[in-house]
Amino acid sequence: MEMREHERRVWSIDFSSADPTMLASGSDDSSVKLWSINQAILFLHLVDGVSIGTIKAKANVCCVQFPLDSGRSLAFGSADHRIYYYDLRNLKIPLCTLIGHNKTVSYVKFVDTMNIVSASTDNTLKLWDLSTCTSRVIDTPVQSFTGHMNVKNFVGLSVSDGYIATGSETNEVFIYHKAFPMPALSFKFDNTDPLSGHEMGDVTQFISSVCWRGQSSTLVAANSAGNIKILEMV
């Protein structure tokens, strides 16, 4: 099936782990769309997939993420430098707005049920505790993580058991632990051509994606030259 309500590029989609029939999408059209696979199948003989809800944002939406334990709430990051957390039973106003980044928020991931880590092109990751949201705004993160370089590209973000992996525009993978602001580990990719194996003169390579394998110490990382590496944290 196809779901074609967004008017501009779709940056991010996420299925709810708690309700696998539900997914969300975020777009350059400054909206988040909620979709039900069951609803889409029901209407498939009439039209393409039909959304079941829309959140109107103030700027481009770069990332969407459901909590691990619920399909009733959602977080998303925006080009207006903010993260928004919604109770999906009220799409008109965010339950909480997280303010602290000074450039586009490129990724958000739930570390656990109440803690979110965000990545931005301001060279930082930030950790937020949603339980401290008493007046619909959090303007102080629990932790800010610095050491990697990220001012332009989407370099990836993945979390596993308190460890946070991200890429860098220095062609390195950085791993942080949620308790400490500095990197715990880093790994630098070689500037090699993935087909010939020859050294490349291109120094603009960057890490483009990272992903932990489940709740394990194994990480897959890829860079902008097409190299993919499987890394083990020991």
TrEMBL record:
Cited Pfam families: WD40
Domain of life: Eukaryota
Cited SMART domains: WD40
Keywords from the named record: Repeat, WD repeat
InterPro entries assigned to the protein according to its UniProt record, in alphabetical order: SPA1/2/3/4, WD40/YVTN_repeat-like_dom_sf, WD40_PAC1, WD40_repeat_CS, WD40_repeat_dom_sf, WD40_rpt
One BP term from GO: photomorphogenesis
WD repeat feature ranges: 3-38, 98-132
Stated name of the protein: Protein SPA1-RELATED 4
Taxon lineage: Eukaryota, Viridiplantae, Streptophyta, Embryophyta, Tracheophyta
